[in-house]
Amino acid sequence: MSDTPPDRLSVDPQSPHHDEAVLARGVGIRFNGQERTNIEEYCVSEGWVRVAAGRARDRHGRPMTLKIKGEVVPYFQDIAEPQQ
Q: Which pTM was predicted?
């Protein structure tokens, strides 16, 4: 696995852009210079993120999302835990 996160990634398991191995490694998002933890999906090349719109749900039970445009910088988080 490379040290650069994918161009597009989603936390929704039904999305074609979902990658469990990458998500297990831990991906952080810096959006417009601020650290964000509520990102549902992102695309670096198109410059947008999707965030949950409050507690609203669609008819399939998935969270409703808003698409926000801006500068997206993904990075891998250090998730190494000490082995015992």
A: 0.85
